[in-house]
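retry 2 of 3: previous attempt timed out while embedding LARABZUK. Reduced batch size to 1 and resubmitted. Inputs unchanged:
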Amino acid sequence: MVRVKICGLTNKESAWAAVEAGADAIGFVFAEGRRRITPVLAREIIRSLPPYITTTGVFVNEELNQVNQIADFCRLDLLQLHGDETPEYCNRAVRPVVKTIHMGAGVPDDEYIQNRYGERVRAFLLDTFVAGATGGTGQTFPWSSVQKMRIRTPIILAGGLHPVNVAEAIRLTQPFSVDVSSGVETNGQKDPAKMREFVHAVRSCSPVFFGDPH
Ligand SMILES: O=C(O)c1ccccc1NCC(=O)[C@H](O)[C@H](O)COP(=O)(O)O
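retry 2 succeeded.
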């Protein structure tokens, strides 16, 4: 079953709507941008959630002590790092790390990435390279490039997914999980109906998987 993470939640209502839509994981952005949330509010939301929902904190080149303090304060389960964080940085993080690979027109040097980060991260999140941005852009990248990659660590597919294109994206990339933000928003706010449609689209196309997932 392909897991679903809904990212960029900024208030309790939308976090609960994501959970009620069936998301396995939710994400809070602590980096600069319109979806930024304060640690105090994220902690309050996380404390209110039911069990078995994985909470993720999104950071971009943040000072490691600060990341670790926020992880402890909010009781985050995972850290999603969207910048130039090194393997050593990932090693010293107090929570398991999901490291973003920004996908451009070609295939990245995945063997190099796997060798450097493979032992230190829980998963790689593939997101679209957009000049001047680090995530949450709503832009897709060519999914066919994922088929050429030899990453052995679980892959989370992100970047411009929405309820209509996610089934095709899963078919082409066979990820462990998908991650969405812009594609379940209306006028910049999380839309409960779109979140439900997104989760439904993923559940409807997910095969029961017995093989070696990406
Ligand atoms: O959402 C942001 O504002 C953001 C800012 C800086 C780094 C990461 C950010 N978001 C991460 C995500 O929401 C997702 O993991 C991913 O980028 C997919 O976003 P989208 O293409 O909007 O579905």
